[in-house]
Task: structure prediction
Amino acid sequence: MKPDDGYIAYIVNPKSGASSSKLTSRQFERFLVKRGFDVRASLTTSLDNACELATDAAVDYDCAMVVVVGGDGTVREVAHGLEGSDKPLLIVPGGTENLLANELGFDEKIRTILRTFEAGYIRPLDLGSANGKCFTSIIGFGFDGQIVKRVSERRDGHIDHFSYFGPIWRTFWTYEFAPMKVELEGEEIFNGRGLVFVGNISRYAVGLQVLHNADFGDGLLDVCIYKCASRVHLVKHSVMTALKQHSTGRDVIYRQGRNINVSSQFSGIATEIDGDPGPDLPIQIKVIPQAVNVMVPEGSKPAGIRTRIIRAIG
Ligand SMILES: [Mg+2]
Result:
């Protein structure tokens, strides 16, 4: 990337993020200006606005690339706005969880951002669509949908990892495992009680490798279904997942595909999309292959459970 290539659209969510990421963002912006780049910064006013700003950048001939500073929600909307454009997207992680940025190999350090920008290594990123709503990372049905619902009901402004403790605890003791039906490419692969995850990234909250075979650019979505009707069984699944042993179990279905339907005869099953409350069932999910070009740190791996717990505490 050279200054002659065009301006850099710098989309910042002023609400999201820890102060460390705000500092990283300012340092990166200063670095770009010093190098002679025309940096045009915009502060988002809403998630829809983040998408609009990205769409404007995508169709503007003079724009060479897009930088987004924000959490998973902001990143998703910017990716959505860029869908189908070949302009590279660089993510400066600025949220609580940063699921996608972590999957791409980012941490919150300025040197990682600079190294990534200078190397200019680009990979295609698939997006997902759930009832027409875009997602980048993961959809959860049931248990974790309920947790996200509780967190968002209590949410006023920025949340951190500690915001989840109460909701996880309460959901664990009160959750009723409602039955769901899952179809993959039109074929029923599950009909029963359990937890269902569909997504494009291998690591979920705190680095759990729920969809451990997921590749964000392979044109496929991964599906993991935990057969589960009791708290004891849920604890077993959690331990096996933390140990990366879950998908070999007879009580887990692990598949990949392009079209997934999740439905239920029961109403009120909560869902979450990329950590935000999702729509009611039935949900039709499909992959949008190679929708966006993302700049990634070459050779980096997603951070594991230990690293992410240390980061969360630090
Ligand atoms: Mg994939």
Notes: Residues 133-289 form a domain with the Tumour Suppressor Smad4 fold (CATH 2.60.200.40). The pocket of magnesium ion is lined by residues 126, 200, 214-216, 218, 220-221 (CB under 6 Å).
